[in-house]
Amino acid sequence: MAENTKIEWATHTFNPWFGCTAISRACDFCYAETWAKRSGLVQWGNHPRRLASDTNWRKPYKWAKQAQHAPPSNYSEASRFRPRVFCASLADVFDNQAPQEWRERLWQVIRDTPELDWLLLTKRPQNIMDMIPRVWQPGLPSHIWVGVTAENQTEYDRRMNYLQDVPASVHFVSYEPALGPLKIGHRSFPNWIICGGEDRVREGREMDLQWARDLRDECKPRGVAFYFKQTNGKSEIPPDLMVREFPRAT
To answer: What is the distance between the alpha carbons of residues 39 and 36, in angstroms, rounded to a whole number?
Structure first.
């Protein structure tokens, strides 16, 4: 789930399983939890996760096969001529409540599909090094990009402390929903930052567009790709924030 995605910075979304537990303010009003309640397929929170169907697990192989034969012009600018798979929108790959054998199955799918760039986004970066295969610990395959959600400075600082030690070709940060100003500072910084407000405007959780402008200006001299996704409520993006850059694997 799903064949393609409405997420602008990815080509496909893949969910190997479903279910998660809220752990920070970014989880409030979670669209995945809303989906779970509406669909009735999984109970959110401290409940068993649900493994996706075998049909769903076969989709990355189809995407990889398509990538082998499709000319670059058929891919969107967002893919930079390689399909990007966001994993996972309805779960967290590094959730310790998901069985490790499910992760081992995911690692094998990723090994088998080097034609795809796999974007693993987590709020639990402290678990990454313990959960990846031992053979990957010196360096993950170049088609695996690892990112963290960071809604404010506190979570950015805490999660980047773990992310910077993960030997991935691309480190990225999803600053969404942006709930406070964020500075990347002068320490180790990511290759890419995706910035955006919440889908709906909620009192006390509005994104100040100056936060995005300041972060954009800080990213540029450091070579950090900056992607502005949306304002609060998906209102019109100001012309000066129509910046949609993508990183290159190192």
So the answer is: 5
Residues in CB range of 26: below 8 A, 6 or more apart: 123, 149, 151, 155, 176, 177, 179
Query: Would you say residue 247 lies in a domain?
Result: no
Q: What are phi and psi of 145, to 5 degrees?
A: -110, 140
Residue 26: its pLDDT value, please? 84
pLDDT tens track for 166-222: 999 999 999 999 999 999 987 789 999 999 998 877 777 889 999 999 999 999 999
Predicted confidence (pLDDT) per residue in 9-18, tens digit? 999 999 999 9
Contact 163, 125 (CB under 8 A): yes
Q: Is 149 helix (H, G, I), strand (E, B) or coil?
A: strand
Whether residue 200 is contained in a domain is answered as yes
Angle at 76 (CA atoms; ends 164, 8), nearest 5 degrees? 60
Q: List the beta bridge partners of residue 145.
A: 119, 170
Q: Is the pLDDT of residue 75 over 60?
A: no
Instruction: State how far the Cα of 46 lies from the Cα of 123, in Å rounded to an integer.
Output: 16
Cα-based angle 50, 54, 56 (whole degrees, multiple of 5):
80
Tokens of 166: 């993960």
Domain that holds residue 149: 12-241
- Total of domains in the chain: 1
